[in-house]
Specification:
The chain has 390 residues and is α/β, with parallel strands linked by helices. The strands form 2 sheets. Strands 1-7-6-5-4-2-3 form a 7-stranded mixed β-sheet, with helices on both faces. Helix 3 runs parallel beside helix 10. The protein is globular. The structure holds pyridoxal-5'-phosphate.
């Protein structure tokens, strides 16, 4: 049995059932602290908190079951779990830069990553250059002697722009620059950035890993020494780890991750096929659709894609897009994605109504997340919402 066999990872790895009554589901070790009999034992564990149970701001046995599974899924040496994806971004970025350093980031990364680059880090003397990540030359041109970090997100979650992860990793290695990739869209099941040479991989576990829209969490994986440094600095200092209960919810989410993604993949294809025939749909963006501008690259580095689709609606006025979204009776209008429930998010929600420009394709984008419902249920809901537009 390979340590990396998916069924083994999700059902057994890290679980020591003989220690807890052979219970199939692991216990939630709901404790803040752990007791010691000997001072010399305290001496030993204080030398490195990243290897002992002392206090649940750091490690906890329920959490460790999850860490082992998530590290194995990414083929990584080690893993840290945070109380949000944003926390994982913050800790991994901050741990790798100091005053005077420079970061190269893909343009329009996840909004709160951009906030760190634009608002927080400049106060500490760290500058960021954004690049259109679709061309490797852009990265080559942006790198400075002070560049310490390249921040990637492939695909992103609006227009699904990709970066060639192997090419960027190779360039970064040659220049001694650390790479981080946000892999939330794909999860380790559909993309393996570490295998392509990326140093650290993060994902919002709020999305597919949790999968039920009931927990906010983030995952970071990479080399043991990198995880240890972040644990002993940012994670312990900010106290942004995860609670035992939320770790347990993520273990539960992992059990069904492959079946959920399989189901969502099927439904996504049915929904895309139907959307193609809709007169109100001008364009469909989806990385594994042959019409996608980076389709070849997507096929090369991703083994799957599902759930998130962006449609560009044919509309003269913002009101028409508003009518479509507000007419949906079952598909909810909400941020986030990756749960059981289908969602829409219109791009125009982040644009001042007076600034709406029908000539700008981006303003007419509506992101659709396909959840676990029946395809026919979603299609019928969109059909009546399209009808309401005219
Ligand atoms: C949601 C999301 C995040 C942030 O994760 P949280 O768990 O919400 O903090 C980061 N990156 C991407 C691509 C996301 O979709």
């Amino acid at each position: 049995m390979s340590t990396y066999d998916l069924s083994y990872i999700l059902n057994e790895l890290g679980e020591e059932r003989e220690h807890y009554f052979n219970a199939v589901a692991p216990p939630i070790i709901q404790t803040s602290n752990f007791a010691f009999k000997k001072v010399e034992d305290l001496h030993r564990v204080f030398e490195n908190e990243f290897g002992a149970y002392i206090y649940s701001r750091g490690l906890n046995p329920t959490l460790d079951i999850l860490r082992k599974k998530l590290a194995a899924l990414d083929r990584a040496e080690d893993c840290l779990v945070f109380n949000s994806g944003a926390s994982a971004i913050y800790a991994s970025v901050v741990s790798n830069v100091q005053s005077g350093d420079h970061i190269v980031s893909v343009k329009k990364p996840y909004s709160w990553a951009q906030k760190i680059f634009d608002q927080t880090l400049p106060r500490f003397g760290v500058a960021t250059t954004y690049v259109d990540g679709t061309r490797i030359e852009e990265f080559e041109r942006a790198i400075l002697p002070t560049t310490k970090l390249i921040y990637l997100e492939s695909p992103n979650t609006w227009d699904f722009a990709l970066q060639d992860l192997r090419a960027v990793a190779e360039l970064a290695r040659a220049e001694g620059i650390t790479t981080i990739c946000d892999n939330s869209y794909c999860t380790p099941l559909h993309q393996q950035p570490i295998g392509m040479g990326i140093d650290m991989v993060l994902q919002s576990a709020t999305k597919y890993i949790g999968g039920h829209s009931d927990v906010v969490a983030g995952v970071l994986t990479g080399r043991h020494d990198m995880m240890e440094k972040i644990f002993n600095n940012e994670l312990m200092a900010m106290g942004n780890g995860i609670s035992p209960f939320n770790a347990w919810l993520l273990i539960r989410g992992l059990r069904t991750l492959p079946s959920r993604l399989e189901r969502i993949t099927k439904t996504t294809h049915t929904v895309i096929e139907w959307l193609r025939s809709q007169s109100r749909v001008e364009r469909i963006l989806f990385p594994l659709d042959p019409s996608f501008p980076q389709y070849e690259l997507a096929r090369r580095q991703m083994s799957g894609a599902c759930g998130l689709i962006t449609i560009v609606l044919r509309a003269e006025k913002m009101e028409e897009i508003v009518t479509f979204c507000e007419s949906l009776r079952h598909i909810l209008m909400a941020v986030s994605w990756g749960g059981h429930e289908s969602l829409v998010m219109p791009r125009c929600a982040s644009i001042q109504p007076s600034a709406f420009d029908a000539g700008n394709e981006e303003h007419r984008m509506v992101r659709l997340y396909v959840g676990l419902e029946e395809a026919a249920y979603l299609v019928a809901d969109m059909e009546q919402a399209f009808a309401a537009m005219s």
